[in-house]
Specification:
The protein is about 35% helix and about 25% strand. The chain has about 120 residues and is of the alpha/beta class. A hairpin with a 2-residue loop joins strand 4 and strand 5. This is Thioredoxin domain-containing protein.
Length: about 120
């Protein structure tokens, strides 16, 4: 869950994240989260964003609101600047990766509330 240190890293976005959303604020935390996704087999979505990204800050409130509607999914936020090693293959922000049965099954680039909601529904 979100600890004070992780919460401070998101203050620049002007949003208090719900406790349901896990935040990766380092490469080691993101690696641990990815390992948990693979071993727990819980459906999950990772939102890769950046504090400087205007589009990321526009979709983040929707991501947060949808976390309470899709209770079967695990929601994760990872800032690419805080996890540079693990996110080096992320080329666009925001990028959403969807996992089912421990494997990545889908990805979405950019914003769009309906697109995101539809993808979450599909993978929940």
């Amino acid at each position: 869950m979100i600890e004070g240190e992780k919460r401070r890293s998101l203050e620049g976005l002007g949003l208090a994240l719900p406790h349901k959303i896990h935040v990766a604020s380092s490469d080691s935390q993101l690696k641990e989260i990815l390992l948990n996704i693979k071993t727990s087999r819980t459906p999950a979505v990772i939102n890769y964003g950046a504090s400087w990204c205007r589009v990321c800050s526009q979709i983040l409130p929707t991501f947060c609101n949808l976390s309470s509607k899709f209770k079967k999914l695990s929601f994760i936020y990872a800032d690419i600047d805080e996890c540079p090693e693990t996110t080096q293959n992320i080329r666009y922000t925001p990028t959403f990766h969807f996992y089912r049965d421990g494997e990545r099954v889908d990805e979405m680039f950019g914003t769009g509330e309906e697109r995101l909601r539809d993808r979450l529904w599909l993978h929940s």
